[in-house]
Amino acid sequence: MKTVPKSAIEDVARLSGISKSTVSRVLNNHPNVKEETRRIVLKAIRKLNYKPNLHARRFASGYSYAISLFLPEIGTQFYGRVLKGVEEELDEYSYDVALFPLLSQERLKRFSNPHAAAYQNDGFLFVSLDPEKLHHLNPFPLSKPTVLADGYSEKFDCVYVDNRLGGYLAGQYLSSFPGEFFIILVEEFEFPLSTRVFGERLLGFETALKEKGIDIPQRNIISVDFSLGGGQIAARDVLQITKSPLNIFATCDLLALGVLEEIRGAGLSLKDEVRVIGFDDQPWAKDYGITTLHQPIEEIGKTAAHLLMERIKGNKGVTKAVSFKPKLIKRNSA
Amino acid sequence: MKTVPKSAIEDVARLSGISKSTVSRVLNNHPNVKEETRRIVLKAIRKLNYKPNLHARRFASGYSYAISLFLPEIGTQFYGRVLKGVEEELDEYSYDVALFPLLSQERLKRFSNPHAAAYQNDGFLFVSLDPEKLHHLNPFPLSKPTVLADGYSEKFDCVYVDNRLGGYLAGQYLSSFPGEFFIILVEEFEFPLSTRVFGERLLGFETALKEKGIDIPQRNIISVDFSLGGGQIAARDVLQITKSPLNIFATCDLLALGVLEEIRGAGLSLKDEVRVIGFDDQPWAKDYGITTLHQPIEEIGKTAAHLLMERIKGNKGVTKAVSFKPKLIKRNSA
DNA sequence: CTGAAAGCGCTTACAG
DNA sequence: CTGAAAGCGCTTACAG
Prior knowledge:
Two copies of one chain form a homodimer. By secondary structure, chain A is α/β, with parallel strands linked by helices. Chain A has helices at about 10-15, 20-25, 35-50, 55-60, 75-90, 130-135, 165-175, 195-210, 230-240, 255-265, 295-310; strands spanning about 65-70, 95-100, 125, 145-150, 155-160, 180-185, 220-225, 245-250, 275, 290-295, 320-325, 325-330. Chain A starts with 7 loop residues before the first helix and ends in a 5-residue tail after the last strand. The first copy, chain A, binds a DNA duplex through α1, α2 and α4.
């Protein structure tokens, strides 16, 4: 009379002839397991195509094996790339990411309850968001490990790119050319979803120009929506002000691409008459010859996820900020 | 010597003087609980601010109390509103939604593993996506309840709007005006993330025009990116072809708004010289006087979530398709 | 309608 | 380095 295995992990234990305690240790990469034992267990796991019951693991261990990622939205290439970096890093720890796009101000109240599912995970990653600003009325328990990406705060580990420096580098380079100067900005989300990213790039740009004694008039600062068409429309507006020579800091590659399309359509010659600089160095920027500020977007996500995982694993060190320096990549457009 | 409660639910049981079995029944809205008992228990729950341990519930019940929502991206108003409808409905069942934006073709492989976290939930909702197309190489187990929204398939319950009819209604109405006809389309995602939504609207539009003996030339079919700027740029292109009278079907309100901005900028008079029709009837369409096809976006999400929850609760009925009829809302722009 | 008890499938001190 | 056993906090037949 053979005993019936009660759980899947017992099947593995039986087949491998190893206790389920040790099978569990193998599953969790526990260091104190003999190499040969590990091999035997892994073989049985493969043979049975065993996957541990996620809910049982979470319950028994007290870990969710997942982090919560808060972001304004998902749909732009930026957040897709941040997410890619985050997922790459989490894969190393066999952790999952649960996505919580805020989307709108009114939807924020879904996150004001500290018992919300979003707060049941082992750590929180805020992208382009300030948790303190979000919860200034209704502070939620940030007692769990928390890291910011594409944002800055004194209280938490942060990973971001120096946007002001990026704007400065763009301004420094563009100001070596003759002609009029323009900057195209993206309209920000409303508080509290706003970030200062584009404002920072503007500040750096203005600083660099000012150092050369150049003032940029208000009408040369153009705001559009974040889209190809936005860039195109901005370019048409620019061309109504001056024909050439022109120097345009588009503050992101998507706008720069829209600008370039219009410039070409208008028959102006790039570099000679018009200079355009983007920001991001998206994978396709090279194909279009866009001069731009490179920022390591996946790396931001990856680094933030890494810091967060270290916190989850128990790192109690002082708060840390990682700032990446953008790099000017000179190509055809300037 | 009082016994120490081992779990939070036991605190509630003790305080209310009711067994934890019954406390659990109250928590799960079990019908067979005396009204007074329920009241007593709820009072104790409130007093202790008790929230059940989610992981324990999932483990013990075998339910995750969550559904997985697959969509191309999140960031456009459309998906935000679908999600809103889904969340509203799920709140009724105390269910959560886990978001899985596919984002890119290469990212699809994250979802090819049937053990992926996305498939651990109680049901699947696909928005603007065809699960069979997604998994034609690597079919994943759709043995759990599955519903489609903004899409159609023979195999699953579906909820969608009749886009072809919408296009037809736009064409029927616009064709009563004199002048030239234009249609502005949104460029689709690449396979397998593509949907036929805008293609359907085009088909309906062409059918209506054809019935009046009108053929729409190829150059009057303009594709742009989904953005305000896209609409503006399309309008400028239209104005280079003909000045007036013009009839433009913009296929969504965002494009229509961009078109209107350009039309006004060009000094043309709406209705007399130019007619513009959008699609969606977004909340702000009224403010801008956009004539449009109304579609109940939240309702699509809500209905899809409802069908899914009924399936999860055990409904084994035949597959069902719910199709909403778009409605022409006449306002200032046409 | 309610309670005592078993059980969900893992993890983890504890002892060896 | 490994195993036997207790335990994680709920749900749910089962009996009444």
